[in-house]
Amino acid sequence: MYSNAFCKVYNEFGWNYFPEAFAEQLLVWLEQNQVHVNTSLDLACGTGILCEILHEHGIESSGMDFSEGMIEIAKEHNPDIFYEVADMIQYRPDRHFDLVTCTGDALNHIMDLNDVEQIFQNVYGYLNDGGYFIFDILNEKEVPMEEPIDLDFSEEIKAQFIVTHDEEGAVNLKVTVYEQGKLQFEEVIREIVHDEKEVCRLLTKTGFQVLKCSNHLLENKGNYSKTWYVIAKK
Ligand SMILES: C[S@@+](CC[C@H](N)C(=O)[O-])C[C@H]1O[C@@H](n2cnc3c(N)ncnc32)[C@H](O)[C@@H]1O
Predict the structure, then answer these.
(1) Model confidence over 145-174: pLDDT tens digits?
(2) Which amino acid residue places its CA nearest to atom 8 of ligand 1?
(3) Per-state percent for the chain, helix, strand, coil, to nearest 5
(4) Residue 177's pLDDT is what?
(5) Is 66 touching ligand 1 by the criterion CB < 6 Å?
(6) Residues contacting 224, CB < 8 A, separation 6+
(7) Which domains can be identified in the chain, with CATH numbers?
(8) Ligand 1 geometric centre to CA of 226 (Å)
(9) Rg of the chain taking only CA atoms, in angstroms
(10) Considering 45, 125, 176, 201, which has the largest number of Cβ atoms within 10 A of its Cβ?
C-alpha cells in the first residue's frame, strides 16, 4: 500500500501521463475492434485518471484501489464515479462489467503468482460473457537497473527515482523528493517482474482467450517498450 504522502507525489508530480496514454490507445482499440462497452472497472485505479476518461466517453466506469490516499484523490477528481478501497486479491464485487482494466504495472505489485491467478479468477467471475480484461505488466528484459533519473519539477522542487533489483528478483523503485535542497520525502515501491508467458498461461488456465500479449496495444504504436499489453476475452 502506498503512503498518503506518496499518493500526493504520484498525483502532483508523477505518473498520470501513463493512464492518459493507455486510455487514448484503449479507446482507439475499442473503436477499431467494434467493441461496445457500457460498464467498466479499473483495478488498482490509482488517482482515477483512466476511470475519468472512460466516464467522459459515456462508459459507466468505476475503480478500486488498495491505497486510501489514491481513492481519496480519485474521488476529489470526480465525485460522480464510484470508487472503493479494497485489495484486488480478495475483491469480488457483485456487479458485472463489460471491461476490466489494470494499468501502470499494478499487477507487478502482486508479488506471488498464486495471487495473480486468484485475481484472474476473480475477474473472470465478474466480467460479463464476451467481456474483456485489458492490462499491462512490466517487460522482463526492459526494466532499467541502477539508473537514477533526476526530475526538476520547479526551481525549488527536485525528485530522483532509482530503480534497483534485489536478490529475490524484485524491482525496487526508490523515490526521493527534495525542496530547496532539503529531503522532503522518501519511499520505496517494490514490484516483481512476472514472466509474460506464465501470466498468459494462467489466463488461459482460468478460461480466458488471450488475444494479445505484446509491447504495443495498437498495431502501429510501440511507445512503451518496457511494458507488455495483454488483452484477454472471457
Ligand atoms: C503504479 S500505480 C498505478 C495506478 C493506476 N492504475 C495508473 O495507471 O496510474 C499501482 C497501484 O496499484 C495499487 N495496488 C497495489 N496493490 C494492490 C492490491 N493488492 N489491490 C488493489 N490495488 C493495489 C496501488 O495502491 C497503486 O495505486
Answers:
(1) 666 777 776 777 778 878 888 777 788 888
(2) 104
(3) 30, 35, 35
(4) 82
(5) yes
(6) 18, 21, 136, 215
(7) 4-140+194-233 (3.40.50.150), 144-191 (2.20.25)
(8) 18
(9) 17
(10) 45
